[in-house]
């Protein structure tokens, strides 16, 4: 059973609602103050942002080391480009940009990722090239 104080609180809430079911303006501020607490604290955002930037720097260091070892540049782009794109997109989300601000950037990053995955190097020529049929000179 409910206690008397809970019943009084419920009656007060009912009084705040108008006869047509609309909430009176006095309760809007109450609703705004009782919004759920976000799990994203400023400290957590800073830590995540710094960790994503550090990971991005590690990937850049790997790129430089691979470039010094004379590895094919298209392979380096494919191996390291996609993690950099993921890091960039995740960083923008963690930092807290709105959906309208981040949508064009995510589209651009997706375009770059599609290019990297679809890019074919000219060094790998097709080995199944058909030879022209022999002509007879009878």
UniProtKB/TrEMBL annotation:
Q: What are the entry keywords?
A: Membrane, Transmembrane, Transmembrane helix
Question: Superkingdom of this entry's organism?
Answer: Bacteria
Transmembrane segment boundaries: 44-64, 76-95, 101-119
Question: Which protein is depicted?
Answer: Uncharacterized protein
Q: Give the source lineage, highest ranks first.
A: Bacteria, Pseudomonadati, Pseudomonadota, Gammaproteobacteria, Alteromonadales
